[in-house]
Amino acid sequence: MRRVDDPTGTRAASGWLSARVPADFSVSTPDGGYHVSVFPAETLEWMDAREGRFIIDGTLGGGGHSELFLKAGARVLGVDRDPEALAHARVRLAPFGDRFTTWQGNFADLHESPEIRQGERADGLLLDLGVSSRQLDSAERGFSFMREGPLDMRMGPASRHSAADIVNAWDEADLARILFQLGEEPKARRIAAAIVKQRASRPFTTTLQLASCIEAAVGRHGRTHPATRSFQAIRMAANEELESLAAALAAAPAVLKPGGHLLIITFHSLEDRMVKRHLRHHSAPFIDDPGWPEPKPNPDYQFELLSRKAILPTDGEITLNPRARSAKLRVARLLEPAP
Ligand SMILES: C[S@@+](CC[C@H](N)C(=O)[O-])C[C@H]1O[C@@H](n2cnc3c(N)ncnc32)[C@H](O)[C@@H]1O
Predict the structure, then answer these.
(1) pTM for the predicted model, two decimal places
(2) What domain range is 257 assigned to?
(3) What is the pLDDT of residues 148-191, one digit of tens each?
(4) Are 60 and 129 members of one domain?
(5) How far is the CA of 173 from the centre of ligand 1 (A)?
(6) Residue 279 domain-assigned?
(7) Which atom of ligand 1 is nearest to the CA of 65?
(8) Total domain count for the chain?
């Protein structure tokens, strides 16, 4: 496995991809348009998927990454909060027989899966964060500001609140905070005020009702829909996405074998910052403080960074899959215990 240390930013280049990635490899997978996996070749390479290895795909989605690991000979546990994703992937990956199993749950709770409870540990764990194209495009799931549907946005039945619960009940200050923090929406306060004013006479029940309230509050400028950032923020809040990620990062060492690989694909700066800071701290053998006479051993030293910088998509991948534009892949290896 090559370590990528590129001070200009790590842009995945075909040169370092191993011979195991087929020459005719394409990012579009034959999954009936469910979802196009990002970083397919890089994920396969860094996961080191092969016969005899057990991999947990913590974000199964359409099953694209899992299929790559299965084709490379690995055994895969596919995890998702969304029963619809699990049902789809079970059909798609049925040809791999009992090398593919599934568990419905939050990747934050992987320790509750039967495999981990029975003492199994994984050679690799993948988290490909966010929602799938299928979830976004299904009007009835309520993720899209372009399609009329119930204002739901829950990835799975266990999510505690729907988008409607949030916009109809949260304080104006809390709404403004999530729109600003999770959506990086500069007009967060104006949008929060408009939501609170409108819900007083007519609570929100549909996606287009919310999208048009936001558009009326801030107007439409440029090509991006004015509700884009707000919908992202409300989705992240409804599914407690940052909380799940923090819990999964903390739990990963208990799920992996020593030497196991952790691969995380982010699409949002807050998620990437959380992953970067966590892995940076947990891969430092020593910690230092200006008040200390000398650096001290880091009690949290657990990982080795396999790629010091985030791996970014190639221009070719972005052309084929525009969703990859904001994707970043970070890769670490759980340390072996000291002899
Ligand atoms: C970007 S898609 C994954 C696509 C997949 N890698 C593929 O190649 O088709 C993300 C998936 O992860 C699931 N998901 C997101 N957060 C989750 C969590 N905390 N626990 C379990 N599943 C989660 C979503 O329901 C969605 O199906």
Answers:
(1) 0.90
(2) 39-138+244-271
(3) 999 999 999 988 899 999 999 999 999 999 999 999 999 999 99
(4) yes
(5) 30
(6) no
(7) 8
(8) 2
